[in-house]
Design brief:
Helices cover 34% and strands 27% of the residues.
Length: 335
């Protein structure tokens, strides 16, 4: 019988465990939930400085042991994988503590760190080979985004010519906080879809009565990209609009649409974009697929994760460049 890979969760808040109670979200949607439902892994314990969260975690996951200190957790349960779901400023010291143990792999939540220098150090630890470090850029594992990547590679809709994107996260969320917390996902998936680093960065921050708007323009290889981060809305939006020479794809949270160029029903001797009727997958597997990759990498030391600490560093590096361009670097870090 194959031995199951032992896992532990550090940080027992929303993404660590609590979002599993959201009845509308695709499950699993947390680290604990993914471990619990994966046949090849086993949830051994959790860690948090909040006693109430520890009690809730243990009750929710069949009495698994909980600890207030990372060292005590690892010494007691000896996990192969630890999931770090704590605030970004704690990621580096936790990972440095884990480096002294027998843990094989760390799944670290995004953003990897609040500053590029710290993220670069975490990336160096991954490259050093003592322990593999993944960044939880979950869209790399999501079936809908993987389908889009296949369409790009196979030229289903012709050549990819541009990608527009927008992120809105509520009325009062500062956009410079938004780009760090939610923009990391957008920046990473743009790198993943284009297969390129993001270069030639231009950014402008516009102030408004209902909140600021940040516009970013760059290139992903030969593909022009633009991003908009905006406040003032009473709803959330995470959306990409991919324009091809012979079609279009729109994808985002709760959104998947494909269009193919065909003879126009509106104009003679012209073409229009016609919906193909394709629907997004009912289950994207974004969290479960990520954990499967982690388990495989913990077993096979030669395997490289799909989303590494280097990818996490690249996102923070890009964000630092944007903040420098709009002159708001210090404001975000120290407000």
């Amino acid at each position: 019988m194959k031995k199951r890979v032992g896992c532990a969760v550090i940080g027992l808040g929303r993404i660590g465990t609590l979002l599993e109670e959201d009845s509308l979200r695709e499950k699993p949607c947390t680290h604990a939930g993914a471990i619990h439902t994966d046949p090849d892994s086993m949830l051994l314990g959790g860690c948090d400085i909040d006693e109430k969260r520890c009690r809730t975690f243990s009750e929710r996951w069949n009495g698994v042991p909980v600890f207030s200190r990372v060292d005590d957790l690892i010494e007691a349960v000896n996990p192969d994988i630890v999931c770090v779901a704590t605030p970004p400023e704690t990621h580096l010291p936790i990972i440095e503590s884990v480096l002294q143990t027998s843990v094989r792999l760390v799944i670290c939540e995004k953003p990897l760190a609040p500053k590029a220098a710290e993220a670069a150090q975490i990336a160096r630890y991954h490259q050093g080979g003592r322990v593999k470090i993944m960044t939880n850029h979950e869209r790399r594992y999501s079936a809908d985004y993987l389908r889009v990547r296949d369409h790009i590679v196979s030229h289903t809709f012709g050549e990819l010519l541009s990608i527009g994107s927008r992120v809105y996260m509520g009325e009062r969320r500062p956009v410079l906080e938004m780009i760090l917390d939610d923009g990391t996902h957008l920046i990473d998936i743009l790198r993943f879809l284009t297969g390129s680093e993001l270069t030639d960065v231009h950014a402008e921050l516009l102030e408004g009565d209902r909140g600021d708007t940040l516009f970013v323009r760059c290139n992903g290889g030969a593909v022009p990209l633009w991003m908009e981060f905006g406040a003032g809305r009473d709803h959330i939006v995470f959306e990409l609009d991919l324009s091809f020479s012979e079609g279009r794809i729109r994808i985002g949270n709760g959104l998947y649409e494909e269009y193919m160029s065909d003879n126009s029903p509106y104009y003679e001797h012209m073409k229009s974009l016609i919906p193909t009727g394709a629907e997004g997958p009912r289950q994207t597997g974004y969290f479960s697929n990520m954990l499967c990759d982690a388990v495989a990498c913990a077993i096979d030391v030669s395997r490289e994760p799909r989303s590494t600490a280097v990818d996490g560093y690249r996102s923070i590096q890009f964000i630092d460049r944007v903040r420098e361009l709009v002159g708001m670097y210090e404001k975000l870090y120290f407000c």
